[in-house]
Amino acid sequence: MQYSKMNDLDLAHKTVILRGDLNVPIQNGAVSDFTRIDRLKPTIDYLRAQKARIVVMSHFGRPKNGVDPAFSLSFLPSVLSSRWDAPVSFASDCIGAEAEEAVKALQDGEIVLLENLRFHSGEEKNNSAFAQSLAKLGDVYINDAFSASHRAHASIAAITEYLPFGAGLLIQEELDNLHMLLGTPVRPMAAVVGGAKISTKLSLLNNLVKKVDYLILGGGMANTFLLAKGIPVGKSLVEPDMLAETNQIIASAKDNDCQIILPIDVSCAAEFAANAPHSIHPAAVIPDDLMVLDVGPESIENVKEILQDCKTIIWNGPMGAFEIQPFDIGTNALAKYVAEKTKQGALKSVAGGGDTVAALDGTNSSKDFTYISTAGGAFLEWLEGKTLPGIAALMIDKKAA
Ligand code: AMP
User: 112: exposed, middle or buried (C-beta count within 10 Å: 0-12, 13-18, 19+)?
Assistant: First the structure.
């Protein structure tokens, strides 16, 4: 099935509702990473060139009980305005009179950002009435929030029932690249999966062992695999209640000729803290009073050796607690190596996931990867082979299907 593309629609002088993902990371009250904003710019530029009036909507964080100033998007218009080099106003509600008036005031080429969609419970419930209230604001709906398209929310799914719709340029780029690089990957193929827990990536791991030649594990999740092999992991982050699932992944890997690569040595400390005194230990002998916070130097060399053989790599999740030094060493070393091999043309590399991209940016390596997806959950679900509700909603002949 084909999805509808915004560039096939007549958008001239139209009021276009654009669903973006402006759920940007904040540190000390300021945006700490502009990736999501910057990667929407081509779509914004395209729409402005069409002299469209642009109504941007997004979620931000996870407000639980309606309006909560801590999750307001009101800080963002000035940031958008400078990154997009365009006039951006703000509507303090995403539906109703406030939103309608703000939209009415727009001139051709101007942008209004609506307040956080999740201040209304109808958003996450994919509620039709809420979707209709959003749809009332414009003539055409464009989804360019790939990273939110794994969720059947009103601004992603239900709204397409009420307006002509199309995919923005970022979604098109994401889908094109993921299909090209991972649809029929050049082998051998490795997946590097790190991060905190197995429980959040269970179906990904189950799916990957059927697809890749090497599953390289790091981060907290590797601890549960070590425990499954009977190795005590001291004070480390571990999920003993996931041992049955872990053993099942190990068995499925065997059945599918996928080698699971675990850390050989690990960097440990007594507490999860920056610059905590640390020491390197064989992964088979983790001291009782310490916790694993990164992979060790031998593990890095081992992974590099394996990757010498590989032609395609996908990466999700850091190898260690990369936010605190020196437990970023494993992630940084591997990121640099993958970037280098990619630059040499020896490897196609794809990474995705908010933390992953932040981790790779620690060494400025991401620019040399073949493709960086803006998405975390959506990237993982795409990899799992799932149909993303937000993409299904953009299919041209979905009514006929
Ligand atoms: P995820 O969102 O699942 O990709 O997990 C990312 C988080 O995993 C980061 O915040 C890391 O600090 C954390 N992490 C990675 N390795 C470890 C580890 N060995 N122990 C504790 N946390 C870890």
Answer: buried
Whether residue 324 has its Cβ less than 6 Å from ligand 1: no
- Ligand 1 mutation target, pool 233, 235, 237, most atoms within 8 A of CB: 237
Q: Are strands 189-193 and 30-31 parallel, antiparallel or unpaired?
A: unpaired
Residue 112 belongs to what domain range?
A: 6-172
The yes-or-no answer on residue 64 being catalytic is no
Residues 189 and 166 in one domain: no
Q: Do residue 32 and residue 146 come from a single domain?
A: yes
Q: Do residues 191 and 123 share a domain? A: no
Ligand 1 atom nearest 196 alpha carbon: 8
**168 and 198 belong to one structural domain:** no
In ligand 1, the atom with minimum distance to the C-alpha of 272 is 21
Domain count, the chain: 2
Q: For the segment 380-398, what is each residue's pLDDT rounded down to a tens digit?
A: 888 888 889 999 999 998 7
State which ligand 1 atom lies nearest to the alpha carbon of 322.
Answer: 12
- For ligand 1, atom 1, name the residue with the nearest CA: 195
Same-domain pairing of 168 and 190? no
Is residue 352 within 6 Å of ligand 1 at its C-beta? no
Q: 106 with 333: CB under 8 angstroms?
A: no
Buried b or exposed e, range 249-280, using 16+ CB within 10 angstroms? bbebbeeeebebbbbbbbbbbeeeeeebebee
In terms of domains, do 195 and 126 share one?
no
Give the global pTM: 0.87
Q: Model confidence over 11-28: pLDDT tens digits?
A: 999 999 999 999 998 988
Q: How does pLDDT run across 75-130, given as a tens digit for each residue?
A: 999 999 999 999 999 999 999 999 999 999 999 999 999 999 999 999 999 999 99
